[in-house]
Amino acid sequence: MKFISRFALIIILFVQANCFAQEEDYRPDLLFREDWKEIPAEIPLNQKHVENPNLIVSLYGPGSDSIKKSHHEKPPDDPFYIWSGLCLANWAVTLQLKTGHMDLSRFSKIRWRSKQSGFRELHIVLKLADGTWLVSRQSDGDSADKAMPVHALTGSRYMHILYTKPSAMNQKISRRQFVQTTAAAAATVAITPLSGCGAASPYNAKGLPTVKLGKTGAFVPLMGFGCGSRWMAVQDNEIALEILESAFKQGLYYWDTAASYGNEQISSEERIGMILKERREQVFLTSKTEERDGDMAKKSVERSLKRLQTDHIDLLYVHAISSLEDAEQLGEQGKVLEILDQFKSEGVVKNIGFTGHASAAGMKRAVELYDFDVMMMALNHQSSDGAEDFEGLPAPLARQKGMGVVAMKVIRPRETVNGLAANDLVRYALTLEDFHMANIGIDSKDVLNSNLEILKNYSPLGEEKMDEVRMALQPFYEGKNLAWMHTEYQDGWNHDIRRA
Questions:
Q1: How many Cβ atoms are within 10 Å of 396's Cβ, its own excluded?
Q2: Among residues 257, 263, 260, which one has the least CA distance to residue 283?
Q3: Residue 340: how many CA atoms within 13 Å on its side-chain side?
Q4: pLDDT digits 0-9 by tens, 365-404
Q5: Which of 210, 215, 299, 300 could form a disulfide bond with 219, CB atoms 3.0-4.6 angstroms apart?
Q6: Are strands 132-140 and 92-97 parallel, antiparallel or unpaired?
Q7: What is the pLDDT of residues 300-325, one digit of tens each?
Q8: What are the E-state strand segments in 372-424?
Q9: Spatial CA neighbour of 30 closest among 38, 40, 19, 43
Q10: So where are the chain's domains?
């Protein structure tokens, strides 16, 4: 395969504020300009390369180490610039005024001189006063020569709002935070490629908050649509699919199913397959296999593909790791991971993960031994003797390895403990530092609408409220009758039809 070189020149940056429509010769105040110092080339770009003494430069993202302060000796009029090389990963360069915040809430604009080729796209990024990030939908793509486009900052639509963590622009976002804080935008601007150096995302969260799911690189809603026992409790296929379609149209495109999910009438995968084909590329589809033998796992995945009426699955989980021994045998010759790795090399399975309900130690061992992309684990429960620390053992290690971490069983405590609010339980799970999202079963449009309201109004819980929820959960943690804590538990079947 021929590798296409991708590069960008970012030479001169201007930011202007409060550009009201006035006489043609009117020029708004120039907030700052950067031309880069005339000093020898160096990697990576750093503060000593900044010409303007009032600016602070910062680098973000996994591709930031390759950002080069560069220049050419010839031709003599070739300016100094920064260069992103082959663009092997996303990056952002920000310039911030040392004097503090500025008001960009009116008709402010940004202009840069750049040239890029291949699949590169340059996006605007703004950092708000509360520490979140806005990434513009519009971008500059391939250009034959140097260009100097102008972009209105407040006239732009923004895809993501990201908590600021250096070299990890992949945190949770909130549309409401954008609406509430636009008028207090900070004096930081950035140019960055998005989603793999310009590849447009096929997903549409319809304004719901999203998060980058670890190594998958996909931005997914903070809540997934669980197609297990609760959804399968809806016996009428037409009604069940109306709920799923309504969720999709409102931004819930992460669909979670499994080979073993279903009821006596139909499997969950077959039901999803009825409507998947017409929107396949717009759905982030996950499924699971509970098989450990390689040949049986191969048959299970092939059956899932047939039921779902698709040729690929975005994320395939090894279902329900139950012990240390279970985790340690997954990678043996002839076992499930050998087959899943083969499917991944063929593009049939895009990402590989595992789930767990009963053994925190087993899940931690799986994280240690293998290169999984995602882990989904039951939350809000521990063994009655306190030996299974589900939040403390596997989750931090999984995040350290760059895995996506998904919570499930988030709202189940309400079944046994009075006074717990679904809103608090969801926000509790999403506020936990090591979790990206929560997967929640939905069995009616009322439940769907309630969950959507939680997402649309989502904000993390404060530490005092987190402690309050932890205390309220203690009776649940101490419960001895949690079905999924037993090895014979079969996940994803409707309670009234087969074992839950």
A1: 15
A2: 257
A3: 31
A4: 999 999 999 999 988 554 445 556 666 679 999 999 999 9
A5: 210
A6: unpaired
A7: 999 999 999 999 999 999 999 999 99
A8: 374-378, 404-408
A9: 19
A10: 8-198, 210-485
Tell me the three state secondary structure of residue 447.
helix
Q: Which CATH superfamily is domain 210-485 in?
A: NADP-dependent oxidoreductase domain (3.20.20.100)
Q: Is the peptide bond before 460 cis (omega within 30 degrees of 0)?
A: no
Decide: 176 and 90 in contact? Cβ < 8 Å. no
DSSP state of 485: G
- 154 near 105, Cβ under 8 Å? yes
Residues whose CB is less than 8 angstroms from the CB of residue 128 and which lie 6 or more positions away in sequence, other chains included = 134, 161, 177, 178, 181, 182, 184, 185, 186
The span from the CA of 126 to the CA of 167, in Å, is 16
SS3 140: strand
Question: If we measure between CA atoms, which residue out of 154, 56, 139 comes closest to residue 104?
Answer: 154
String of DSSP letters for 18-41: ---S--TT----EEEEE---S---
Task: Give pairs for 272-281: CB < 8 Å, separation 24+.
Answer: 272/227, 272/244, 272/308, 273/307, 273/308, 273/309, 273/310, 274/237, 274/241, 275/241, 275/244, 275/245, 276/308, 276/309, 276/310, 277/309, 277/310, 279/248, 280/310, 281/202
